[in-house]
From TrEMBL:
Keywords: Glycosidase, Hydrolase, Metal-binding, Zinc. CDD domains: A4_beta-galactosidase_middle_domain (cd03143). It catalyses: Hydrolysis of terminal non-reducing beta-D-galactose residues in beta-D-galactosides. Residues 399-601 form the Beta-galactosidase trimerisation domain. This is Beta-galactosidase.
Length: 668
């Protein structure tokens, strides 16, 4: 089967549309306006199970046929969704086992969304039926190019009977014997040893005071269940739609979900991106957003989709956000493209008039009169369509990476280390410092190959094994620079402590031992460098002894005043830094700048606050995106003059950007 739209990596702008929410008399008028505006792709049928199957085995696809035929008529591509996020009421009434059960015994009721247990045989059975019907019917439809699976997975912590049984089976398969379980979970503590397999089950009553090794495995079990749930859907789609690609729309990082495990079976990753519109978020929001985009790109280590992009102020189960400032919608869409999004799909075409998301505003308000936000969207469509051929096939090629682990995230959630010590928030700080320096940075899964990088940041490698340790040592020995932080090498992968001086397996390459630590939490700790400049540390202070490393920062107060706070160790041809405390942004930027300049990384140290850069490179050339993601006009000092793709003129060494201004410069 041939389909002219099978490529998931077209550079394009799209919208989310719910034809089932609107009178059919509006459909063609809407689609005509989409076409006129430059919309290339739409997402459909995400929550439409009850409209496609109003009762068991009675399928009513005529409305969707009509909508798809209209999109085909106007040559707009369609991504269809599997509707399993919202099982219909008839199904939950007939098969109540689909509803998740909370730790306290309560049931997640129908009529909302996400009311589905991933392990429910009924959900999997009836889900496979509706997906089979959809894929058989639309596998050859000229408008359909791909599939979004479910919607926004999250770890449910379901405690139903099926999950209880499957968890027991999972543990049996992993450990084989109860003796192994008792050893690997350390159940001798608090007399928690298992003497019969019937005693092994989900953590009824919640997780407070539960065994941390057990809880980490319960999270891993759920990751496996979600991946298996998704795999069953993919099998149906592959059978009936071999020319189509599949994705899932991840959301709201940090996710307890293991993004990399679930992403492994996808053709392309996708993210739902809602940058905060509040003025008081201007200093942090664009940088948190940049991290989210880099995390999404790292799921597959290639370009991705935005499946929902902010189109207006969200508001539903929380007070409505501020209206997007002029230029905001356009600028943050370009930010997504700059960081590797090929397609940006805006949520949604028109604001809803009914249901829970009435105040989650779309491009057009309920009045159905296009306004300022829509005109800005139309401008964006025109720009992206004009540059699509040049940007097609381009991608980011970075020489720095942050290594992210959902196992570390979960283990540190289970056992918080100090007041204010947050694994993902700390990752944000390292990423923000690099972004403010203009250093391109990938965010990849912590066990991935490090080929092609010069700088690797390894934050809080709390759980550690020999394989990852060896990979970091080889990377440094070959000339790379590694930055290791506090709370590294603390535990084995079973979430039990290593009986070695910290940083455990990393002591050899870091050249330090942790003699003692002080969980200072939100207290500020003064640290100084060799030139007497003062900075602040927080959260945690490792008191370090040197075993080959050299100190680069020292504590300047408390009983460990004068002892090293950060060190560097020559290891083979490279270097390994150890940060014993969480350093403030000024210190991190100084440190990363020195490392980057030594390694020959591209640095733009004088970027104004809120200005970000990124480079996409391909066979058509290299393109530097310069984005002012703030409400203030900014001037950016450029190393040279470059032609602008957006404005078709040469831009000088001083680049002036209006509030939320964007430019794209051709480097080669």
């Amino acid at each position: 089967m041939e389909n002219q739209y099978v490529d998931a990596h077209n550079v394009q702008i799209g919208v989310v549309y719910y034809p089932e929410h609107w009178d059919p008399s509006l459909w063609e008028e809407d689609i005509q306006l989409m076409k006129q505006t430059g919309v290339q792709v739409v997402r459909l049928a995400e929550f439409a199970w009850s409209r496609m199957e109003p009762s068991p085995g009675r399928y009513t696809f005529e409305w969707l046929d009509q909508a798809l035929d209209l999109f085909a008529k106007y040559q707009i591509r369609v991504v269809l969704c599997t509707p399993t996020n919202t099982p219909p009421r008839w199904l939950s009434e007939m098969k109540p086992d689909i509803l998740p059960v909370f730790a306290n015994g309560g049931t997640h009721h129908p009529g909302v969304r996400g009311h589905r247990c991933y392990n429910s045989e009924s959900l999997r059975d009836y889900g496979a039926r509706i997906i089979t019907q959809m894929t058989a019917r639309y596998g050859d439809h000229p408008a359909v190019i791909g599939w979004q699976l479910d919607n926004e997975y999250w770890v449910i912590d379901c405690h139903c009977d099926t999950c209880n049984q499957r968890f027991r089976e999972w543990v049996q398969e992993k450990y084989g014997t109860l003796e192994n379980v008792n050893r690997e979970w350390g159940t001798v503590v608090w007399s928690g040893e298992y003497s019969d397999w019937s005693q092994v089950g989900v953590p009824y009553g919640g997780s407070r005071h539960q065994n941390p090794s057990y809880l980490l495995d319960f999270a891993r079990f759920q990751w496996d269940c979600i991946a298996d749930f998704q795999r069953e859907q993919i099998r149906v789609i592959r059978a009936n739609c071999p020319g189509h690609w599949v994705t899932h729309n991840f959301h709201t990082y940090p996710q307890r979900l293991n993004l990399y495990q679930v992403g492994a079976d996808l053709d392309v990753a996708a993210f739902d991106y809602y940058p905060n519109t509040a003025p008081d978020k201007q200093a942090t929001g664009p940088y948190s957003g940049a991290l989210s985009l880099d995390v999404t790109r790292g799921i597959k280590r290639r370009n991705f989709w935005i499946m929902e992009q902010l189109s207006g102020p969200p508001g539903c189960w929380f007070p409505t956000w501020r209206a997007p400032y002029p230029g905001f919608i356009r600028a943050f869409s370009w930010q997504a493209i700059a960081r590797g999004a090929d397609t940006v799909v805006h949520f949604r075409w028109r604001s809803a008039v009914a249901g829970a998301e009435q105040f989650w505003h779309g491009l057009i308000d309920q009045s159905n009169v296009p306004g300022r936000r829509f005109r800005e969207f139309a401008e964006l469509c025109g720009e992206v369509n004009a540059l699509a051929d040049k940007l097609q096939g381009t991608a980011l090629v970075n020489e720095a990476a942050i290594l992210l682990s959902h196992e570390h995230l979960e283990a540190l959630r289970i056992q918080p280390q100090a007041e204010g010590y947050d694994y993902y928030e700390n990752v944000k700080d390292y990423h923000r410092a690099l972004t403010k320096l203009g250093i391109g940075c990938d965010v990849i899964e912590w066990t991935q190959a490090l080929d092609g990088y010069k700088l690797v940041v390894a934050p809080s490698f709390y759980l550690l094994n020999e394989e990852v340790t060896t990979a970091l040592e080889r990377f440094a020995a070959a000339g790379g620079t590694v930055v290791v932080t506090s709370r590294s090498g603390v535990k084995h992968m079973n979430n039990q402590h290593v009986m070695l001086p910290l940083p455990g397996l990393l002591a050899n390459c870091t050249g330090v031992n942790v003699e003692e630590y002080d969980a200072i939490g939100r207290t500020a700790m003064r640290v100084v460098d060799g030139e007497g400049r003062s900075y602040q540390g927080s959260q945690w202070c490792d008191v370090l002894s040197l075993h080959g490393a050299k100190a680069v920062l020292w504590y300047d107060e408390e009983f460990y005043k004068g002892t090293p706070a950060a060190t560097v160790n020559r290891f083979g041809q490279g270097k390994v830094y150890y940060l014993g405390t969480h350093l403030d942004e000024v210190c991190l930027m100084r440190l990363f700048r020195e490392i980057a300049e030594e390694l020959g990384l591209m640095v733009m140290p004088d970027l104004p606050e809120g200005v970000q850069i990124a480079i996409r490179t391909g066979t058509t050339g290299s393109y530097l995106f310069v984005l002012n993601l703030s409400r203030d006009p900014q001037q950016v000092m450029m190393p040279d003059a470059y032609p602008s793709l957006l404005y078709e003129t040469e831009r000088g060494n001083v680049l002036s950007l209006a509030p939320y201004g964007v430019d794209i410069l051709q480097l080669s």
